[in-house]
Amino acid sequence: MTSAETAYLFRHALLRDAAYELQPPGQRSGLHALALELIEALNGGRAPGPQRNEGGELRCVPHASDPFAKELAMHARLARADETGTGLECLYLRRAAEHAERQYHNDEALRLWQELTVLLPADSRTEPLRRAGLVAHHAGRHADAEACLNRALENARAGGQAPEIATTLSNLGVHMEQTGQPGKARECFEQALAIWRREGNRAAEAVTLANLSALLLDQGHHDEAEAMLAEALELHRAAGNRKFEAVALGNLAGAQLGRRRFPQALELFERALAIHRELGNLPFEGVVLMNMGIVRMHAGDSDAAEDLYRRSLEIHRSVGNRRHEGITLTNLGVLHQNAGRLAEALPICESALSIHREVGNLRGEAILLGNLALIREELGPLHEALEASRRAVSIHRALGNRRLEGVCLCDRARMQVQAGSLAAARQDWAEGTAILAGLGQGETIHEKAQLLRQACERAGHESLV
Description:
With about 475 residues, the chain is mainly α. Among the domains are: about 280-350, Serine Threonine Protein Phosphatase 5, Tetratricopeptide repeat; about 360-465, Alpha Horseshoe (Serine Threonine Protein Phosphatase 5, Tetratricopeptide repeat). The chain contains 22 helices and two strands. A two-stranded antiparallel sheet has the order 1-2. Strand 1 and strand 2 form a beta hairpin. The longest helix is centred in the N-terminal third of the chain and has 20 residues, at about 5-20.
């Protein structure tokens, strides 16, 4: 653009603003009211308010005017000569925030929810604060997420709003779990569960059971977690909640996968996938495809696994799901790693690590660091392998991921042998095998013992096993 064109546009903007300011306030208000009316009329009339969905949450059904909701909120604000337009401004601010969420524009959605919070009276602020916390969590802005969720919880408790208290506790539990605070997460889930049972809200009870079971699975409590998932699945079916039924099927499949029951896991994932596709639930379809890739990888079908991972990545990128993009990249890196294609695996794993740190996925970061340690063990330098393993163990320990902590310690024992640090190797091996034995992971100990013997033999040391 030439300087003359730039100057013309600048003068044009000044003229526009000057013409606007020359209008008397009452006339300006009328023009905004007319603009509001015309935009609504061109997009199917006034958009409705939020409605409760099958999970009991207030959500806005998409409307043709949603792409213009932010503009409509502005016109509603400027159209009023008194406070009578406040409700309409809040309606469209809420719809703008939800539209931004659906478009995965998390920063804009967070700003809009916070703007709405300021407009509302104190007894109506729990919901926008909670939603702001969720958006901040998904965007990886964890300090903002925790602050918003805690404010929402305080607000709900001050108003004695039992359902809002329980919903916020569940959201806070998920946040605590994924940011390395498993004890606080369990406390939140159990408090929420008690409230839903007192309220007789079986659908919300089932959702909270699923959240708690995911935490228990990570900590190696498989029997307790599977019992909760089975109960949640039956509750969803009884309530006719197809979306949550599919989520519960996927969670139950994940539990089977954790126990290496691959045919059962695949069958459950396929059932979940069919429901998500029926409902058009694209983000969850991407998650299930990734998990099916894990099953195929363990079954030795690398080509099918890679295809599923690629399809999953395409979906995650299309909807802006950075968290699961990082998780899927991690699994793709593992696939290449297991096939001995370490040079290909390394950049994929480094990209995944960057995403995990961006979104604050501590569990994903720890898993990825454990994988990178194994790659560096082969490609070098060995000191980078040991450092990655040290950091992985530290995070797993903080999160309470006992099985993965034990696996990483056993792997690090082998690396310590290669580095000539036999005392450290003995300590890591003793700690790692004690953890795995306590979890009934005898097969994993046997596999790691074989690798440790080979490392000792190559280094010319007496076996530590």
